[in-house]
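Hi, here's the filled form for the chain we discussed.

Project: internal
Contact: R.S.
Residues: 301
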Amino acid sequence: MSETTEQQWTIQRLLDWTSEYFAKSTIGNARLEAEVLLAEALNCQRIDLYTRFDELPDPDRLATFRAWVKRRGAGEPVAYIVGHREFYSLRFAVDANVLIPRPETEHVVVAAVEFAKSLDARPIRIIDVGTGSGCIAVTLATQIEHCKIAATDVSEGALAVARANVASHAVEDKVKLFQGDLLNALPHGSQPVHMIVSNPPYIGRLEIETVDDQVKSHEPAIALFSGDHGTEIIEQLIQQAPRYLLPGGRLIFETSPIVMEKCLRLVQSNPAFASVSVDKDYSGLPRVVVATRADQLCDDG
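And the returned structure, exactly as it came back:
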């Protein structure tokens, strides 16, 4: 984008040039990402761009857009550049301290909301383990009228993002944040809950070469990787969860189709769980594990 021809950079030309540039950089959805960045820089809706094709953007906003295009061309995710991502039709602030919310994780929310409909309890008590941006906890707080949610994360940086999202969606009365490792973050003597939900790290370090460079370079490793095979943290969660669940309560967590069979074996081999099922994602792949706690725990539970 030459400075000497700045007066010619209409919105349409900016979109065309940027889309072509992104496509050459092997960025998927090049046109969409160009539109998202330009709409954000101009503080308008994407659809508004199509009624403003001949407009010349304000120089300051054009400078912002150019800087963002450079960052995106270097591989930085759009969500981090603009500072937010939509999840379950809600907007969530994100930065490099948290995993970018993805559509697959919405299936955890769907499973939890469906289970909540079967419960008469007021409030329905929920724990969100590894809350990151808080997208699961906050979304559940907006979808379940009578609930109390404890959201944990080991990262203070992640909790700062989650805290902002809790406030922006005005669910401070429903969601409380705790720093620490998995369920150990909760205060001693916490009440048992109806549900534990989680999108834990589930990529094995032996798979690192298969992970997209954009993800590896920009999203937090602590939220992505779990041991050599991807199930280390999930195994800990499965071991800890029964002591925090009410009889008949559910552990609902996202995982990868690659490690799904191992996750199912881990649940099935734990006598504290009476049953387990799998929900598929939008692509028809096995994505979410739903495990139901037995009525009684074994002594070695």
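Let me know if anything looks off before we file it.
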